[in-house]
């Protein structure tokens, strides 16, 4: 596809069934600014607009989904608090910090067992049941509070995790028409057709190339990254909830500080943690190349390498 300069977004012709626009462009700040311009132009016809990044590396398996619900959860809890309680199980997976204020009803023995006593993983479809529970809550809230169109800009969609990608596809499939939802997707050049195909034939998609600067590289200073990583690791301690919340940040900071032994151990936490939850495909994102890295940078730690083998 030949990149073109694209005009600002116009109101969708809903009679044609179009709910998705895909923009191929180099990743980075320029693409984010472009997508935000599209949202700004859509606001006269949309009551709400949202920008989210779906990049697994910066947001984990629920990248994009967590950020979307961060922007609406306060309103849900204020307007329909029973919905948040009813769907507490789903919410604490995408926003783990909510475990401090939401009570998850009927946890399983695997949920309650200490980490060293967990002896089984969850069913593979558990992650997708969470996806559909979130959509049910979203539907119940928006259908009662706002009948106007909403536009969600999903940047870095080619870098999304399995469950994050699945959420947006299922949201449009199940509730796109009813809730008047529209997606603006930012993705790498050459990936638009594949993403369009993943949404299937029930949606008409428009794919455009946009000529933007490649300004995705934003290198962290190694000294400041090291200082921040050490401080945050002390703050987190052995709290698994805090580890989950800060996992992506810790991997990024230790990577910038070039402390590969730390990167490996944090990636292993992600591999083990999400594998135990039943998010197997996303867990493997943390495990890709991890055994080789452990052999290179932590050759004396046979125990860690053995567990990486087990989990992958």
Topology, element by element:
Elements (H helix, E strand, L loop, with lengths): L17 E7 L4 H14 L5 E6 L2 H4 L5 H6 L2 H7 L1 H6 L1 H7 L14 H4 L13 H20 L4 E6 L6 H18 L1 E7 L4 H7 L5 E6 L12 H15 L3 H17 L3 H17 L3 H8 L2 H8 L4 H10 L1
Parallel strand pairs: 1-4, 1-5, 2-3, 3-4
Helix pairs in contact: 6-8, 8-9, 11-12, 12-13, 13-14, 13-15, 15-16
Distinctive features:
single chain, 312 residues, alpha/beta, Rossmann fold, 5-stranded parallel β-sheet, 16 helices, globular
The order of strands across the largest sheet is: 2-3-4-1-5
Helical fraction: 40-55%
Low-confidence stretches: 1-9
What sort of overall outline do the alpha carbons produce when their principal axes are compared?
globular
Average pLDDT rating: 89
What's the domain count? Answer: 2
Q: List the helices and strands in order.
A: EHEHHHHHHHEHEHEHHHHHH
Number of helices: 16
Secondary structure class reads: alpha/beta
- Termini separation (Å)? 37 Å
Number of strands: 5
Determine Rg (CA atoms, Å): 20 Å
CATH architecture of the largest domain: 3-Layer(aba) Sandwich
Describe this structure in words.
By secondary structure, this protein is an alpha/beta fold. The protein has two domains: 14-209, Rossmann fold (3-Layer(aba) Sandwich), CATH 3.40.50; 222-311. The protein has helices at residues 29-42, 56-59, 65-70, 73-79, 81-86, 88-94, 109-112, 126-145, 162-179, 192-198, 222-236, 240-256, 260-276, 280-287, 290-297, 302-311; strands at 18-24, 48-53, 150-155, 181-187, 204-209. It has a five-stranded parallel beta sheet with strand order 2-3-4-1-5, with helices on both faces. Helix 15 packs antiparallel against helix 16 (302-311). It is globular and about 60 Å long. Mean pLDDT is 89; it is low at 1-9.
């Amino acid at each position: 596809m030949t990149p073109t300069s694209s005009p600002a977004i116009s109101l969708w012709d809903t009679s044609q069934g179009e709910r998705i626009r895909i923009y191929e462009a180099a990743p980075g700040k320029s693409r984010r600014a472009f997508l935000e311009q599209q949202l700004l132009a859509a606001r006269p016809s949309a009551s709400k607009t949202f920008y989210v990044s779906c990049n697994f590396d910066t947001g984990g398996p629920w990248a994009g989904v967590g950020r979307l619900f961060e922007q609406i959860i306060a309103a849900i809890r204020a307007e329909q608090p029973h919905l948040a309680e009813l769907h507490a199980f789903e919410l604490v997976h995408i926003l783990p910090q909510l475990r401090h204020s939401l009570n998850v009803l009927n946890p399983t023995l695997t949920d309650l067992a200490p980490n060293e006593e967990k002896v089984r993983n969850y069913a593979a479809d558990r992650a997708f049941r969470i996806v559909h529970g979130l959509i049910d809550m979203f539907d119940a809230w928006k259908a009662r509070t706002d009948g106007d169109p909403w536009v969600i800009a999903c940047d870095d969609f080619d870098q999304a995790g399995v469950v994050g990608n699945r959420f947006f596809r299922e949201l449009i499939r199940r509730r796109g028409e009813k809730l008047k939802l529209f997606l603006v997707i930012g993705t790498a050049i050459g990936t638009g057709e594949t993403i369009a195909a993943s949404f299937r034939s029930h949606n008409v998609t428009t794919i455009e190339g946009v000529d933007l600067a490649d300004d995705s590289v934003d290198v962290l200073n190694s000294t400041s990254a090291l200082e921040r990583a050490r401080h945050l690791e002390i703050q987190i301690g052995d709290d698994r909830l805090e580890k989950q919340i800060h996992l992506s940040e810790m991997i990024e900071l230790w990577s910038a500080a070039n402390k590969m032994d730390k990167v490996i151990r944090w990636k292993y936490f992600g591999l083990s943690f999400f594998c135990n939850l039943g998010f197997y495909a996303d867990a493997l994102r943390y495990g890709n190349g991890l055994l080789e890295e452990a052999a290179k940078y932590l050759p004396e730690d046979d125990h860690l390498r053995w567990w990486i083998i087990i989990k992958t």
